[in-house]
Write a structure and sequence with these properties.
This protein has 477 residues and is mainly alpha-helical. It has one domain. 85% of the residues lie in helices and 0% in strands.
């Protein structure tokens, strides 16, 4: 029998490594696309992905989160939900692709290559309909799913490299086609492996299950729509209000932001099923959340601070001076790393323990705040205003969910946050001075600064080796 503690620790490490690798590859791909194509083309591509992400919410109907929660609570009895959820998502995806795709083709007025890009990106709705991540997460095999996603991204990167660097074919729709093909390959391989190696997937239509999933999904899809608005509406609004070029500048900062949150994303993916397991034992849950909060603060704060300090060097090195306006945007958005790394635990816990309405209201408040702030700030400050809107709306959500969760589950991480923040500023400042006055390469400086930060935290007793090496053990009674 698998040890839950060791398996949780392996999942954190495995998912993190796979997502770091995935992030590096996607970072490399974004550099190639940004360098080979115009700022306007890069901006439109990211606009197409952002627009599709909203329709992805409707085609998914909140079922991804529901599957993780329900299957985690009873794996074998609820595994058939995956098949029934897939039927719902396929139907919704096809309906959206036909209606939206046809509308864009007939009425958008876009040039042919833009229409092709949007149509290809819309195919990701079908890919998501069969997304197996929920069943891997529920069975405690997140690391295997993450590894398969990494392999798909590797194929994407390889294909793009061949097309742009070797064949010298400068065709953006072809780049998108390679991406979509790699995603479909991941889905089919992941489903096959799960069915053969982990657990047979029951193919059984259950009308009552479909009704239940649709009823629960109505709440979640609204929450996810609101979440998408306050994290992704900026790209769409910038495109409509300012055009493709300004969207391109913002998209560069956003790409780098997602690379910066790779570790937090890996940790949250593993932690969420563990939180759901203790939804009826708030005393044990409080102990678990205390350790989770400490681990998240330890991981997120140095990344945010060092990224802010060296943002100019990062953008100019990888994207050249063509994207210099993205530097300030990146510095502002990196505050989001700290806010999400530390603060998202409150909303995630509310959802995991069944407070879906409170969670949905919090996300709705954040979405409304983001829309209002975007309308106020983008016309005057362009993509910089959008960055500020993103941070402020995220702060609103963090504060609201914190106030709602504390009366239910009490745990304290404030002291740890202040300590980790102080150390992050200290090592980042020393690194900046070493880079500026001694001339040490900033990448070398960042690596050494992180090593010093971790050493101080461990040997200073701020976070124990046991908490780092056996975090899975600490998360279980």
């Amino acid at each position: 029998m698998r040890s839950p503690a060791r398996n949780a620790a392996k999942n954190i490490g495995g998912v993190f490594l796979a997502q770091v690798g995935d992030g590096i590859l996607r970072f490399f791909i974004s550099i190639l696309i940004a360098r080979f194509f115009l700022v306007e083309e890069y901006g439109f591509l990211n606009f197409a992905y952002a627009l599709t992400s909203y329709f992805l919410l409707f085609s998914d109907f909140g079922l991804q989160q529901i599957l993780v929660r329900n299957i985690s609570q009873n794996r074998q009895r609820n595994l058939h939900l995956y098949y029934n959820a897939s039927l719902i998502r396929i139907f919704l995806a096809l309906a959206i692709i036909i209606l939206l795709g046809g509308g864009i083709w007939l009425f958008s007025g876009y040039e042919a290559y833009k229409i092709i890009i949007v149509e290809l990106v819309l195919l990701l709705l079908l890919q998501n309909a069969l997304n197996p991540s929920s069943i891997y997460d529920s069975f405690g095999y997140s690391r295997y799913d993450a590894a398969l996603k990494f392999l798909a991204t590797f194929l994407y990167a390889l294909g793009v490299s061949v097309v742009l660097l070797i064949l010298k074919v400068k065709n953006l729709p072809l780049v998108v086609l390679i991406s979509v093909s790699a995603q479909f390959l991941y889905v089919f391989v992941a489903i096959f492996i799960f069915h053969k190696k982990i657990s047979p997937l029951p193919i059984k239509f259950d009308f009552s299950a479909v009704k239940k999933l649709l009823a629960e999904g109505r709440i979640i899809v609204w929450a996810r729509l609101m979440a998408q608005i306050y994290t992704n509406m900026d790209l769409i609004m910038i495109n409509f209000l300012k055009g493709d070029r300004e969207t391109g500048y913002y998209a560069i900062a956003y790409k780098l932001l997602f690379a910066a949150v790779a570790l937090n994303a890996a940790m949250y993916r593993v932690f969420l099923p563990l939180i759901a397991e203790l939804k009826d034992d708030f005393t044990a849950l409080a102990r678990r959340l205390k350790i989770i909060g400490k681990a998240l603060a330890f991981a997120s704060l140095p990344i945010a601070v060092m990224g802010i300090v060296f943002a100019d060097k990062i953008v100019l090195l990888f994207y050249t001076s063509k994207y210099a306006p993205s530097i300030l945007a990146l510095r502002i958005l990196l505050i989001y790393v700290a806010l999400v790394g530390i603060g998202a635990i409150y909303g995630s816990t509310l959802f995991s323990i069944g407070r879906s309405k409170t969670y949905t209201l919090a996300i709705t408040i954040g979405a409304v705040s983001n829309i209002v702030l975007n309308f106020l700030l983008i016309p005057k400050y362009s993509f910089i205003g959008a960055c500020v809107a993103t941070i402020l709306s995220q702060l609103v959500v963090v504060v609201y969910t914190y106030l709602k969760l504390m009366p239910i589950v009490k745990f304290r991480v404030a002291d740890d946050i202040f300590i980790f923040a102080f150390l992050s500023v200290l090592v980042s400042s020393l690194g900046y001075l070493a880079s500026k006055y001694i001339g040490i390469n900033f990448i070398v400086v960042i690596v050494f600064a992180l090593v010093i930060y971790v050493a101080i935290c461990i040997f200073g007793g701020i976070i124990s080796r046991d908490e780092l090496e056996k975090i899975g053990l600490k998360l279980h009674k």
